[in-house]
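So, can you check this record?

>
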Amino acid sequence: MPAKLLFVLSFLVLPLPALAQDVPPPVADPDDPPPGMLAYHEEERSRACVRGHALLATVENALEPLAQRSARLRQLGDAMGLEDISRAEPFNEDDPIELGVRAWFSRDAEYARQYADTQDEAILQERRNDRAAMYDRLANALNEVSEEAQLIIQTIGGVEEAVERCDGKILVREPVLEACRQIQSPVCEAARSSEPVRPYRFVEDAEDLWGIERVRPWAAPQRLRPVGGEGSLGGGSTEVTLEKGNLTVNVALETLIRPRSELPAEEIAEFMALLDRLDWAFGHPEFVMAPVISFELELPAPLAGENGYILHFGNDAEGALHSVSARQEGSVGASFVATPEVLERLQTGEQLTVSAIGIAVTDDGAPEMTVLYAFELNSVRQSESVAELITYWAGGGLSDDLLDLIPPGDR
């Protein structure tokens, strides 16, 4: 299915959180107090999400017929792929696409019979062409659904912002109830109920969100592969994610691949010097590569008046690997090339931390850094995943896959 349609359909069937219930308050950790402005920003989020969930409900209702149409078109395509007409029956007599698929099944059966009798390759080619033409009709119909859905979303407005801010988030009950006195929203009934109401979750105290953690350990890396369209590639990476309430921190070790034709000679030389230091095999004549580390924080805003965020090992905030400035809208991210020394420390399983920092000027005019709060990332499966990825890079696996996916002279 086209990536654009998948994006649209993400608004049609909103993902349910793992726990569709009120979240019990966690045991407070005196050594890890919540940032000072966390409660304020989460209460503001909860008030805004009363209107946000009302908007999402409006969008979902408006797009429901298109969601049904999309599901039916996919069902028809699946039935064709399995050559099983029963998976598509009954057909809508008023829909030319459905009638077209039914007619295709009849023609396909006749092609199969003729080929079995004659073993004529021309008949087999006709059969393939007919199948491709019908798939094209289905793809065009899906694109029409996608375009209509995008138009509805654009007309309503504010949908992406509501999804980003509200979808799947844990809300604070009292601010929701306050906003519900002025706005009608599906979340209001859930907030008033003494029983869990899917898909909404609530806490009674905003600061309780700091103690609600969900960890996704380091993921097993996958080989390089095509993703989406226009020559995009995925894989060749591993990552770890920490969620604290509605806040998300992600750190990834990834493959950076750049075309030589887009780089000045001195930058190409830097890439090649790094590969020499690493002693890695990389043989594609049209590209260069480097291992990079990226880190992203999804926050509503700076939560303790911080100036920025640093990535470092353990408690060694002075030994920052990289930094990024804070932004008023909160979410930030950065990436940097991983040196051999950093890769070695990652491979030994040293835990990573992302810290929010404040910078003050002392009486003698020197800058002084203070860690205001921190996110300690899980190291489960870190050594294994990083080692597997480094082996893939160093042993030439990445280079071989890239040569297969994009042969020299094929760009």
